[in-house]
Design goal:
The longest helix has 23 residues, at 359-381. The protein has helices spanning 10-18, 39-42, 52-58, 69-86, 112-127, 139-149, 162-166, 179-187, 193-197, 201-208, 210-220, 250-270, 310-331, 359-381; strands spanning 2-7, 27-29, 36-37, 63-65, 90-94, 97-101, 131-136, 154-156, 236-242, 273-274, 277-284, 289-295, 333-341, 344-345, 400-401. Among the domains are: 167-220, 5' to 3' exonuclease, C-terminal subdomain (DNA polymerase, domain 1), CATH 1.10.150; 236-401, Dna Ligase, domain 1 (2-Layer Sandwich), CATH 3.30.1490. It is of the alpha+beta class. Strand 11 (277-284) and strand 12 (289-295) form a beta hairpin. The chain has 14 helices and 15 strands.
Length: 406
């Protein structure tokens, strides 16, 4: 049996935990864009990533607080310690959720539901946060069960009741069904998971593509053989910053981009990783999104370059931002994010002959030495000890990690 443990309204719950005056009241984390909302705010229809002005219209008594990502990362670390103290088989999904394989603990601890109850009590007592847990035979069913049990609930899906539990749910509950896919399915009369399970795979492939059709059909028919994977390192690392609806100049966007790259590249090096591709993520005033990506060049033998050097990523990301400026000027930008993917262990970096520090390769190697020295200064004296000239005098703001810290 597998547990899916998911902290409830994580950012907002941390704020309510740390400020007693916020408890039981509608709270939104973020300024121009709502990053998280308490259940009291969700009752009024406040959702992410709605604009702050729209959230206040929906909920006139809404209390808005600035995010404190250091507090959220620390709370996540403490919760994951409880997860790993419960079972060594823990697969983190994000900063506030994980899968736990507890099937081998029956003789030592008890039934999975009893383990889930103990875990929930410990998170509440030791970290002060509510957490919902789903218990099921597969990862997918456990995740659905935790979502259905919210807020602050526990739900067991017994093997003999799986179909009874899953099939009446709306098709949007399927892992991988977003607004576009749901629209295609509903247009063809598929409204529940059971409706989809009864369709032929070939029909679904014609609607949503072969790979998606096979995936959704398998989930709807209770086929999810994926085990809980321990120690799997993520394939990308990133951060983003909400800008709100205030006007931003190209210089402002450039400064935000540089700050984000500094953060992401430092996290990359802290995990002893290098990367090959940078992706720029933008969200516009009309809530549409755009992504732009670039991969570093290839070496003489055809292998892709990979690096952890900040300056290389800054130069590459700036090229993407310049190309996107016409679209930004037309639609306005409310969020900017960057991620680095194609990750590998730092020791696997391949150098191009000749090995002397000349040309681009030399610049990358020299920059890496400088980055290491700056990282050491920031580790000892704080992230504000050294900064780039382009960031001096600017609002440092806040950046949200796209994925949990390594």
């Amino acid at each position: 049996m597998i547990l899916h443990a998911d902290l409830d309204s994580f950012y907002a719950s941390v704020e309510q935990r740390d400020d007693a005056s916020l408890r039981g009241r509608p709270v939104a984390v973020g300024g121009g864009i709502v990053l998280a909302a308490s259940y009291e705010a969700k009752a009024y229809g406040v959702r992410t990533p709605v604009a702050g002005s729209e959230a206040r219209r929906l909920c006139p008594g809404l209390i808005t607080v600035p995010p404190r990502f250091e507090a959220y990362v620390e709370a996540s670390r403490r919760v994951f310690e409880i997860f790993r103290d419960t079972t060594p088989l823990v697969e983190g999904v994000s900063i506030d959720e994980a899968f736990l394989d507890v099937g081998g603990l029956r003789r030592l601890v008890g039934e999975p539901v009893a383990i889930a109850e103990i875990l929930r009590r410990r998170v509440r007592a030791e970290v002060g946060l509510p957490i919902s847990v789903g218990v099921a035979r597969t990862k997918y069913l456990a995740k659905v069960a935790s979502a259905v049990s919210k807020p602050d609930g526990l739900l067991l899906v017994e093997p003999e009741r799986e179909e009874e539990f899953l099939h009446p749910l709306p098709v949007e509950r399927l892992w991988g069904v977003g607004a576009v896919t749901a629209g295609k399915l509903r247009a063809d009369g598929i409204r529940t998971v059971g409706d989809l399970a009864r369709r032929e795979q070939e029909v679904l492939s014609g609607l949503v593509g072969k790979a998606s059709g096979h995936h959704l059909w398998a989930l709807a028919n209770l086929r999810d053989p994926r085990p809980v994977v321990v120690g799997k390192r993520r394939g990308s690392v990133g951060a983003q910053r909400a800008l709100g609806r205030r006007p931003t100049t190209p210089a402002d966007l450039d400064a935000h981009l540089v700050a984000l790259i500094d953060r992401v590249a430092r996290r990359l090096r802290a995990g002893e990783r290098i990367g090959r591709t940078v992706t720029l993520r933008l969200r516009f005033d009309d809530y549409t999104r755009a992504t732009r990506s670039a991969t570093l060049g290839t070496l003489a033998d055809g292998a892709s370059q990979a690096t952890g050097a900040t300056d290389v990523w800054v130069a590459t990301a700036r090229t993407l931002l310049r190309a996107a400026l016409p679209l930004i000027e037309q639609k306005g930008c409310t969020l900017i994010g960057v991620s680095i993917s194609g990750l590998a262990e730092a020791g696997t970096e391949q150098l191009e002959l000749p090995l002397e520090w000349t040309g681009v390769e030399g610049r990358i190697r020299r920059t890496s030495i400088l980055d290491g020295a700056l990282d050491a200064v920031k580790d000892k004296y704080g992230t504000g000890a050294v900064t780039r000239a382009v960031l001096v005098g600017r609002d440092s703001g806040f950046e949200a990690p796209l994925l949990p810290e390594a």
